Amino acid sequence: MKFGVVQFPGSNCDFDTFHVLRNVMKRETALLWHKDHDLQGVDCVVLPGGFSYGDYLRSGAIARFSPLMQEVKAFARAGGHVLGICNGFQILLELGLLPGAMIRNKNLKFLCQHVHIRIENEKTDFTRAGRKGQVLRIPIAHFDGNYYAAARVLKDIERHRQVVFRYCDAEGNITEEANVNGSLGNIAGIRNREGNVLGLMPHPERASEALLGSKDGRTIFASLILSLERRKPARRPVLRERARHD
Amino acid sequence: MKVRILVSFKDSVLDPQGQTVKNALHTLGYAAVKDVRQGKVFELELEGATKKEAEALVPEIARRVLANPIIEKFDWQIIKGR
């Protein structure tokens, strides 16, 4: 399978993500430029962390209008897999591919630290290599990670098991202290109802090598590889044809 | 024509920055301040737009770009020209 990592002006985790996908997970990976229209036939688009367009206006608010994001939107609507990490998650929210919005962290601080997140739903294409209730230790680095959705939307998300990760303590307990940014329901990551789009605030690419203190982030990339390589190849040529057509 | 657009959090959304400003004001002794909501101001210079056109254009721009309707509301007015 082939991954594609999107680069916006201000992305700063693009090469970390590229490195992990290509050199650690050993999969073909392309860098995709935000001004292009070509998804280069990738099977999974990754929106990396950073500060696209300087976080001007709102985090992710400008990036969503870039030419490539229109292709990503069509790709996702057609069932293509999209993973948004940190700023990538914010872009997916602004784009409307995921429900809700981000507001400033409750303590108004930029948080850069390791956190624990619990796998709430292991039956997704992004978590199938993990176990239900498994605790992952992955770092966060953000100013606006305080997840918000209207009560009605939140209820809907919970009902459809769209909450994939929640902030927890080292033992996996969902506590207020572990909820460092103030997110509703301790939400650290959600998927869309169809299950092909996931956004999360923690950075799995920064926790994919023992040298960096944790390999837990690999669970997410390994799950994607497992999901996409097991799939019947029939639909991939269709996607390629689509990309070429555009 | 020049228009001014005010974007702020909906009443239902917690505004952590407004809360912090309120706490600072209380620390300074301004006990009368009951609540603070922080927002953003945009001033747009529109060329060749009539008032009627602006009434369609400005809310569209505000909804689509300047505000995130999930968490924010907006208000606007013409501040120069007609």
Q: Low-confidence parts of chain A lasting 5 or more residues at pLDDT below 50?
A: 233-246
Rg of Cα set of chain B: 16 Å
Strand fraction of chain A: 15-25%
Order of adjacent strands in the largest pleated sheet of chain A: 2-1-3-4-11-10-9-6-7
Q: What is the fold named in CATH at topology level of chain A?
A: Rossmann fold
Count of spatially separate domains of chain A: 1
Q: Work out the helicity level of chain B.
A: 25-40%
Poorly predicted runs of chain B are none
- By DSSP (H or I, 4+ residues per run), the number of helices of chain A equals 6
Helix content of chain A: 25-40%
- Gross morphology of chain B is elongated
Largest beta-sheet details of chain B: 3 strands, antiparallel
User: Looking at the chains present, what oligomeric state does this protein adopt?
Assistant: heterodimer
- The count of β-strands of chain A is 11
Helix count of chain B?
Answer: 2
Looking at this structure, what is the CATH superfamily of chain B?
Phosphoribosylformylglycinamidine synthase subunit PurS
Number of domains of chain B: 1
Question: Can you describe what's shown?
Answer:
The complex is a heterodimer of chains A (246) and B (82). Chain A is of the alpha/beta class and 246 residues long. Chain A has a single domain (2-245), classed as Class I glutamine amidotransferase (GATase) domain (Rossmann fold). Helices cover 26% and strands 24% of the residues of chain A. Chain A contains 6 helices and 11 strands. Chain A has helices at residues 14-24, 67-77, 87-95, 151-159, 218-230, 235-245; strands at 2-7, 28-33, 44-47, 81-85, 101-103, 111-119, 135-142, 146-148, 163-168, 187-191, 197-200. In chain A, the strands form 2 sheets. A 9-stranded mixed β-sheet of chain A has the order 2-1-3-4-11-10-9-6-7, with helices on both faces. A two-stranded antiparallel sheet of chain A has the order 5-8. In chain A, strand 1 (2-7), helix 1 (14-24) and strand 2 (28-33) form a beta-alpha-beta unit. Chain A is globular and about 45 Å long. With 82 residues, chain B is of the alpha+beta class. Chain B has a single domain, classed as 2-Layer Sandwich (Mth169, Chain: A), CATH 3.30.1280. In chain B, 34% of the residues lie in helices and 29% in strands. Chain B is built from 2 helices and 3 strands, in the order E-H-E-H-E. Chain B has helices at 16-27, 51-66; strands at residues 2-9, 39-45, 72-80. Chain B has a 3-stranded antiparallel β-sheet with strand order 2-1-3, covered by helices on one side. The mean pLDDT of chain B is 95. At the A-B interface, loops of A face helix 1 of B.
